[in-house]
Design goal:
With 388 residues, the chain is α+β, with helices and mostly antiparallel strands. It is built from 12 helices and 11 strands. The strands form 2 sheets. A 6-stranded mixed barrel has the order 3-4-8-5-7-6. Strands 2-9 form a two-stranded antiparallel ribbon.
C-alpha cells in the first residue's frame, strides 16, 4: 500500500508544479480562504472571551441572575431578598452581590463620550478577583472614587499616564464628577470600550434610578465539602422561577450562547467563515479542473496503458492535498500577523489557538478534497479512444 502511494506521489507533485502561474494562483486562493476563515473565527472567539472576562473573575460557586436576562450588558436586576433566601440552605457558606451597569465616560482631554461597563461591589468583601485591583479596593471606600481599566480603548483618554501626574484624577462619569484613584487590567469588548470598578455606594449614586435592594448578580459560596449539584438542585426547588441558579460554567456558557446564537456577531462571523470555505473550494476546483482538462490526453494514455480510474483519482486527490498544505502555510503565517495588528488596533483578545489552527487546517483539507472529488467527473471522462 505504501509503495503504491509513494509511486504515485511524484507524479502528483510534477503535475502541481508544472504550471508555475497556476500553482501560484491556487496557493494565493487557498491562502486567502484560510486568512478569511482565521480572521472570522479569531474575531468571533475574541468576542466570546471579552464578553466573559467578568465571569471568570467572579468569586463564588453558584450565581443568581434574573431569569429574563439575556447577557451582561442587558442584565435585569432582581430583589436581594432572593439572595437572602439562599443563605439558610445546607451547604451554603456565604453570599455576596454585584451591581452591573453601562455608563457614559467622558474623555478628560477632548470631552468626548464613550460607553463603559461599570461594576459595583463591596470594597470590604469584593465579588470579583482582579489581580492588579485587589490591593486597591480599600481606596473605593471613599465616595465617587473609581478604578480605571488601563486596557480600555485609547479613545477614552490617556488616563493611566495622567494618573501618574495627578492622583486622584478628576473625570466625569454619567454626568457626575468622579475621581480615578488607580488602574487595573481587563480589556475592552464588542459592547463596551472599557471597564470601571466602583463601590456599591458610588454605583448607586451613578445610577440614581436604581434601588439598593435590586442587584444584578447574586454570588453564593459553598462550604468545602458541599455537593455543588445537590445544593443547586435544592435552591432550584426552594426559589421561584423568577431567578436562575447557575454554576460558573453554566453562567459563562449562557453568555457565549447569547453572543453566538442571539446577537448578530455569531451569525456574521460564522457566515464569513462559510464564505471563506466556499471561496477556497471554488478556486481549488477551477485549478484542478483546468489541470485535468489540459492533460486529458495524457490521462487517456495512462488508461490505455492499463491504469484504472482508481489510480488516476489517487493522483488528483494527492494534488488536492499538496495544494491544501502548501496554501495553508502562508495563510497561517499572514493570519498570525493580522491577529497582532487587530489586537493592537482594537485591544480585543485576538489570539491564535491550537484548536483554531487544527480546525482551519481540517477545513482546508476538506475544501481541497471536496474540490478534487468534484473534478473527478472530468477525469473519469478520459477515453483512450480520444488519442487514436
Amino acid at each position: 500500500m505504501l509503495r503504491k502511494l509513494f509511486r504515485k506521489t511524484p507524479l502528483a507533485w510534477l503535475q502541481v508544479k508544472r504550471e508555475k502561474t497556476r500553482l501560484f494562483v491556487a496557493l494565493a486562493g487557498i491562502g486567502f480562504a484560510d486568512i478569511l476563515m482565521f480572521f472570522q473565527l479569531g474575531l468571533m472567539e475574541s468576542a466570546y472571551v471579552s464578553a466573559t472576562a467578568m465571569h471568570y473573575r467572579l468569586r463564588g460557586d453558584l450565581f443568581l441572575i434574573n431569569s429574563v436576562s439575556d447577557n451582561v450588558q442587558t442584565i435585569k436586576p432582581f430583589s436581594r431578598s432572593r439572595l437572602f433566601q439562599t443563605a439558610g440552605t445546607d451547604g451554603v457558606a456565604s453570599i455576596n452581590s454585584l451591581y452591573l451597569g453601562v455608563g457614559r465616560w467622558r474623555n478628560p482631554t477632548n470631552r468626548t463620550f464613550w460607553q463603559v461597563q461599570i461594576y459595583g461591589l463591596n470594597p470590604s468583601n469584593p465579588a470579583m478577583d482582579v489581580a492588579d485591583a485587589t490591593s486597591q479596593f480599600n481606596k473605593l471606600k471613599m465616595l465617587n472614587y473609581v478604578l480605571y481599566d488601563q486596557a480600555a480603548r485609547p479613545d477614552l483618554g490617556n488616563v493611566a499616564e495622567q494618573l501618574q501626574q495627578s492622583k486622584p484624577l478628576s473625570a466625569q462619569l454619567n454626568d457626575l464628577q468622579i475621581k480615578v484613584t488607580g488602574v487595573f487590567t481587563m480589556g475592552a469588548s464588542f459592547s463596551a470600550d472599557g471597564n470601571l470598578i466602583v463601590s456599591d455606594s458610588t454605583f448607586l449614586r451613578l445610577f440614581s434610578e436604581r434601588r439598593p435592594d435590586d442587584i444584578d448578580v447574586g454570588l453564593i459560596t459553598l462550604k468545602p465539602n458541599a455537593n455543588l449539584k445537590q445544593v443547586q438542585a435544592n435552591l432550584k426547588a426552594k426559589l421561584p422561577n423568577d431567578v436562575l441558579i447557575l454554576t460558573k460554567e453554566e453562567f459563562i456558557q449562557r453568555e457565549r450562547n447569547y453572543w453566538s446564537q442571539v446577537s448578530p456577531i455569531g451569525v456574521i462571523f460564522g457566515f464569513g467563515t462559510v464564505v471563506g470555505f466556499l471561496v477556497g473550494t471554488v478556486i481549488v476546483y477551477q485549478i484542478l479542473y483546468s489541470d485535468v482538462s489540459d492533460h486529458l490526453p495524457e490521462y487517456a494514455t495512462l488508461k490505455a496503458m492499463g491504469y484504472g480510474d482508481r489510480f488516476l483519482i489517487g493522483i488528483l486527490l494527492q494534488e488536492a492535498l499538496i495544494l491544501a498544505i502548501l496554501g495553508f502555510i502562508p495563510g497561517f503565517a499572514i493570519s498570525l500577523g493580522l491577529y497582532g495588528l487587530v489586537a493592537q488596533a482594537t485591544l480585543l483578545p485576538v489570539k491564535m489557538s491550537v484548536d483554531r489552527l487544527v480546525l482551519v487546517l481540517s477545513l482546508t483539507l476538506v475544501m481541497c478534497i471536496a474540490s478534487g472529488a468534484i473534478a473527478m467527473r472530468k477525469l473519469q471522462s478520459a477515453d483512450p479512444a480520444d488519442i487514436f
